[in-house]
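For practice. Any example?
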Amino acid sequence: MEAIGIHALTRRYGTLTALDGVSFSVGRGELFGLIGPDGAGKTTLFRLLATLLEPDSGRAEIDGMDIVRDYRAIRRRVGYMPGRFSLYPDLSVEENLAFFAALFGTTVAENYDLVAPIYRQIEPFRKRRAGKLSGGMKQKLALSCALIHRPSVLLLDEPTTGVDAVSRSEFWEMLDGLRRQGISILVSTPYMDEARRCDRIALCDRGRILGVDTPQGIVAAFDRPLYALAASDMYGVLVRARREPGVRECYPFGAAHHLVADASFDPGRLLRTLEAEGFRGVTLRPVGAGIEDVFIERMHHGQ
């Protein structure tokens, strides 16, 4: 039995379709990443799986239980960490943890072994009010509270957004440890370095799934010529490059731009044309694709 099964799930808000027939599954003990921009439907999906919303059509199961029919049982099996810090800012660290344990009819002592690797890092601040914690410590407290009832499935909605790089790395090391203990994790992230740490990922945009595979499999499916384009007059070069036969897409990528082409594209011709039109210092070199390149290509061209 899969940990999460999602079948043609659809949810609308008036005339806006937030989720449009979404289907994928998360295996037991899998760390599964959901990758997409704001407005892709990620938060709506998490709220549906956490039984805070009901779908307009389709269905989903967690541990074989239906999210509508079996919502009470599912709430005891799921740990949910929403995108916004949602704990009680006026309660201390230890009071928040004890409160969430009591909600599920358990105690901190009973499940301390599960949260200890995370909680020990903030335990020296256990008397501090949650609202006074740093971003990284808030994140660790929220994860501890989501785990304190020993869930089988974790739902984490962009848990590291706005957190410093060191805290982000520490957080993902914690997720690796939880996965090794058999907890199934569905996490959304805007960071491609985090996406690469998942067992599998789903690319999503405007309520639809664009592809599901391992991070390596997603990248391997990108079979178009890809180049890094750089120039001192980048704006003028881009305007001209986008008119060149065989060019499909140009977009910012670090200090340069990435140019996606068809097989008919002639890079030498583009360089000669740019030089003849007075552009100097232009470089164009082949590069390997990353998850970002696959996502942009599929988002713009539906592939």
DSSP finds eleven helices and 14 strands in the chain. The longest helix spans residues 165-180.
